[in-house]
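Appendix C: a fully annotated inverse folding record. The material below is reproduced so that readers can follow the format used throughout the book. The structure is listed first as C-alpha cells, followed by the designed sequence.
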C-alpha cells in the first residue's frame, strides 16, 4: 500500500499543473521589467491595413516563458489610450514560448487605416505609440511609433496575434 501511494505521488509530481489554461513548466514567466518591447517598423500593407511584428526580447539574465496574447492599445503623448484596445486575432494558436536570455519572440499587430472609418465614429488623430502588456503581466511598456488612430471607442482598428517564436 505504501509503495502504491509513493508511486502515485511520484507520478502526480511529474505531471505539469495547469495555470491560466496552460501547463506550467519549471521556467518562470517573463516579467515586463526583464523584457525589451519593440516594433519592427518594416510593416506589410494589405487592403487598408498594415501588419507589424511586435518583438519581445528577454534581457532578464535567465530563461523565461511567454504564453498567450500581449495587451496592445494606442496612446497619445500623455499616455492616454486612444480608442479601443486591440482585439485578439486567433490566426495562430497560443503556445508556450521559452526565451533564453537574449532571445526574441514576436506577435503580429494589425493596424487598420483610421481613414477607413467614418469620421463621426473614429475621430482620427495621430497616436504617439503603443502601450504593450506582455502576456499575463500587469505592467506595460510604451513603444514609440506614430500612426493614424481612432480616438473614439467605436471601431476596432487594432488586432494582435498570440506570441510566437521568432
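Designed amino acids, in order:
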Amino acid at each position: 500500500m505504501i509503495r502504491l501511494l509513493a508511486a502515485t505521488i511520484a507520478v502526480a509530481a511529474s505531471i505539469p499543473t495547469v495555470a491560466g489554461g496552460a501547463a506550467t513548466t519549471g521556467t518562470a514567466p517573463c516579467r515586463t521589467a526583464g523584457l525589451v518591447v519593440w516594433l519592427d517598423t518594416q510593416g506589410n500593407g494589405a487592403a487598408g491595413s498594415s501588419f507589424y511584428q511586435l518583438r519581445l526580447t528577454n534581457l532578464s539574465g535567465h530563461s523565461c516563458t511567454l504564453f498567450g496574447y500581449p495587451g496592445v492599445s494606442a496612446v497619445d503623448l500623455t499616455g492616454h489610450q486612444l480608442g479601443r484596445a486591440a482585439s485578439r486575432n486567433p490566426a495562430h494558436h497560443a503556445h508556450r514560448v521559452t526565451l533564453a536570455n537574449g532571445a526574441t519572440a514576436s506577435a503580429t499587430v494589425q493596424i487598420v487605416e483610421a481613414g477607413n472609418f467614418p469620421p463621426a465614429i473614429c475621430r482620427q488623430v495621430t497616436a504617439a505609440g503603443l502601450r504593450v502588456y506582455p502576456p499575463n503581466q500587469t505592467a506595460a511598456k510604451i513603444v514609440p511609433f506614430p500612426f493614424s488612430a481612432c480616438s473614439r471607442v467605436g471601431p476596432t482598428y487594432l488586432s494582435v496575434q498570440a506570441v510566437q517564436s521568432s
